[in-house]
Amino acid sequence: MAAKSQPNVPKAKSGDSVTNDRTASQGQWGRAWEVDWFSLGSIIFLLLCRTFIVYYFIMACDQYSCALTGPVVDIATGRARLSDIWAKTPPITRKAAQLYTLWVTFQVLLYTSLPDFCHKFLPGYVGGIQEGAVTPAGVVNKYQINGLQAWLLTHLLWFANAHLLSWFSPTIIFDNWIPLLWCANILGYAVSTFAMVKGYFFPTSARDCKFTGNFFYNYMMGVEFNPRIGKWFDFKLFFNGRPGIVAWTLINLSFAAKQRELHGHVTNAMVLVNVLQAIYVIDFFWNETWYLKTIDICHDHFGWYLGWGDCVWLPYLYTLQGLYLVYHPVQLSTPHAVGVLLLGLVGYYIFRVANHQKDLFRRTDGRCLIWGKKPKVIECSYTSADGQRHHSKLLVSGFWGVARHFNYVGDLMGSLAYCLACGGGHLLPYFYIIYMAILLTHRCLRDEHRCASKYGRDWERYTAAVPYRLLPGIF
Ligand code: NDP
């Protein structure tokens, strides 16, 4: 049964001075309604290629010890045919299907049946029932934030198994990596298709659905904004966080266990990758309430891009460094390891502080200190599809006064650190930084386009005050 969205829209403040006399037309600042040929071409290309890219990377590790050129050279020189490579690829197995079903069911249960208790005893942690942002149609959804709890319980069980219970080997994920890939794909495609059908026939909030008239665009970028089943099962929050991000640290732990099994020890590079990525994952769950205000939840509709991306792309490609280190047990020199650690920590610091500054600023409506001072503000306004006028503020101090997306710079530094931990032997572990650079640059442009439509002249005032997007003086 579809959940009822909460029509709990903040009222426009009558009497406030309206600072934006050219606000975009009502409710037009969400996802596009019309698709140009370039977007359509890119989408069809991604739909066709992304599944293949994941297969290629994982197969190159399995059959060519992570040498990306290996399959191409073999095929070009006639040493192997496509059918030979395919024949050597492990198929889906009953064991993998059972494991994957158990895993997803367990995460669904943690998500739906266990209201958050972490916020009751962890000082500073914000969990339990929280509100998301105002959608283009003017809806404010409520969310049950219990991701940290799910992560903790899952990992507690993992360590209890590894050290006490011995129900399964900690290498279980690595040992079933390709059979699990087929299961993840089945779920990714199934959930994206279901979301599309649901958007047409029984949407959760019809007012926040968008139809472009183009099947591929609708399938890829989603029709429904916040599809739900029942009152609390929110597709975006669940799929991004649970099968994807909770799994991330478990996958890395399984790779570390495999490295120990194969090579007798865990290298410092593997420890660095595990630690730096665990910081990122724990940060995500500690700040899950903040995540409700990020682009994934606030602006993206739920389609194949998020559904398949969360099930397949994230767990398989964000963990390539750990996978690579199973095949290549790199042991870094102390200066190299310290350099990687420092880069990762400084990147994380910028990422966290920048995101925190915006979050604090928005939560307190600007009544806070940023770098010890009262923040500089640009007042702005916008109109949602229901005709309501809303007021908001843009922060011009702290990292948001250095560049308009300095949080992305911190993220990119952290991403580079994971890759550098793998040394210089192969290109494969560097895929992550290349991908993140493209993703975040594109995201930056996409977000700015949306903000310009939403805030009109107020956004122009912000870009005049903070002229650079990512790196001052460069871009
Ligand atoms: P942001 O957190 O940067 O949010 C952008 C939104 O913030 C804008 O749409 C606007 O929303 C608001 N905003 C923009 N400028 C200002 C300002 N000066 N003051 C106040 N509000 C402002 O974007 P993301 O959601 O993309 O990123 C969140 C984090 O997640 C980033 O650190 C990013 O690096 C990370 N990330 C990681 C990914 C990964 O795969 N590892 C993928 C994507 C993101 P509004 O309409 O509310 O005004």
UniProtKB/TrEMBL annotation:
This is 7-dehydrocholesterol reductase. It is found in: Endoplasmic reticulum membrane. Oxidoreductase that catalyzes the last step of the cholesterol synthesis pathway, which transforms cholesta-5,7-dien-3beta-ol (7-dehydrocholesterol,7-DHC) into cholesterol by reducing the C7-C8 double bond of its sterol core. Can also metabolize cholesta-5,7,24-trien-3beta-ol (7-dehydrodemosterol, 7-DHD) to desmosterol, which is then metabolized by the Delta(24)-sterol reductase (DHCR24) to cholesterol. Catalyzes the last step of the cholesterol synthesis pathway, which transforms cholesta-5,7-dien-3beta-ol (7-dehydrocholesterol,7-DHC) into cholesterol by reducing the C7-C8 double bond of its sterol core. Can also metabolize cholesta-5,7,24-trien-3beta-ol (7-dehydrodemosterol, 7-DHD) to desmosterol, which is then metabolized by the Delta(24)-sterol reductase (DHCR24) to cholesterol. Interacts with DHCR24; this interaction regulates DHCR7 activity. Interacts with TMEM147. InterPro entries: ERG24_DHCR-like, Sterol_reductase_CS. Its main location: endoplasmic reticulum. It is an enzyme of class 1 (oxidoreductase). The chain crosses the membrane at residues 37-58, 150-170, 176-197, 262-282, 332-351, 415-440. Belongs to the ERG4/ERG24 family.
